[in-house]
Input
Amino acid sequence: MEERIYLFNPDNDLALAHGGGHYVSPPFARKMQADLCVLPMWYAPPQSCVVVENEQMRGWVDDVSRQYQLQVKGILREELSERDAASFCPWGWSGTIKRRLMKNGVSSRLLPSDEWLAQVRLLAHRRSSIAVHQFLRRHCSLPFSPVPVEYADVEEVLRFAMAHRGCYVKMPWSGSGQGVYHAIEPQTREFEQWCRGAIRRQQSLLCEPGLQRVMDFAMEFECFAGQSNFLGYSVFESDFHSQYQCGIVAREEELLRLICEKYPQFQQVAPLVKCAVDQLFAPHYQGYLGIDMLLFNHQGSIQLNPCVEVNVRATMGLVTAQVGHRLLQGGKKGKFRIAFSKNAIHEMRPNRFYLTPIFPNTQYCAYIDWD
Output
C-alpha cells in the first residue's frame, strides 16, 4: 500500500488568490502552520505520516497516536526527499505547495501536474457555489436562498449592494471569512475602493443578499477516482462577518439530528449534495472538499442556503467530523476552537482536550472543551 504523507498548509487559500507558485505567506500564517502542523493526524487514515516541524513534535505525534490508536507517525521535512514512492496530501493544493515540496527534495513525478493544479484553482473559484446552487435547483423543488451573482463591473456591484443592504460581497479566491465584505453601508468610499481593488486583482466579485442566520453547517467529502466519499457533517459558529469561530464535536448522528431538528427537509437535500459533488468536482479533483451551508429565517420559516461556499481543501470541519467519528461514544459533545496568544500559550487547562501540542514558544493551539 502506498504511503500517504499529510501536511498542514493553512495559507493555501491565500496562495490560490495570489496565483502561480511563488506565494510567500505572511509571518502569522507561517507561525500557525508551525504550531498546528499536527492537525492532519486527526483525519489521516492509519499507516499515514504527518509532516512536523521538529523532533519534539514528532515525539508528541507518536505518543498521542499510540494513546488513541491512530496508527499515524510524524515525519520531518528533511526526510521527505527519502521517499521515492508516496502520495502527498496537503491541506490544500496549489502551485505554491507543489514548489515547497519540490524544494524539500520531493520528486516532481510524485506531485500533480501544473495543468491539474490550474484546474483545482478554477474549482476553488467562488463561482463554483453558483454551479452547486443551479444543480440543486434542477433536482429539488424546495425553496432555497437566491443564487449568488458574479459581476466583473464595479458599478454593477455597487448597484447590487445598494439594492440589498447588508449583502455579502466576496472575492473569487479567499477563505475562512477573509476576502468577504459585509456591505452594511454600501454608499461609503471605503466599500467602493475595496470593490475596485478586488476586481483589479481578481477580475470579478460574487454578490449575495444577507440572510437571517440560524445555523452554519457543512458536508465533508473526499474525492478519489472520479467519485466522492462522504466523511461527515460539521456544525459550526461564525461571527457577524462570516469568520469561523468554533465547531461542535459530536457523533455524526448527533450532528445530523441538530440539523434536521431545525430543518427536517435536509434529509432529502443531503443525497443531492453528494450527487453535485460527484458530478461537478470528483471527475476533476482528488482530495478533501467541504460544502458550507446555512439555515436562515425567511418570514418565519427556516430555509436553506445549500452552498455558501465550496472549500476545495481540508477544513476545520473535517477535523471535528473525524474526531467525533473516531474518538467519541454515546452522546458526548464538545466545542472545537483555535486559540491564539501573542505572548505564547503557557497554561494547559484541565478537562480540555488538546489536538495540538503546547511548547514554550507556542502561539496557536487547537483544543476541545467538553460540554
Summary: The chain has a mean pLDDT of 94. The chain is about 35% helix and 30% strand. Residues 154 and 196 are 6 Å apart (CA to CA). The longest helix spans residues 266-280.
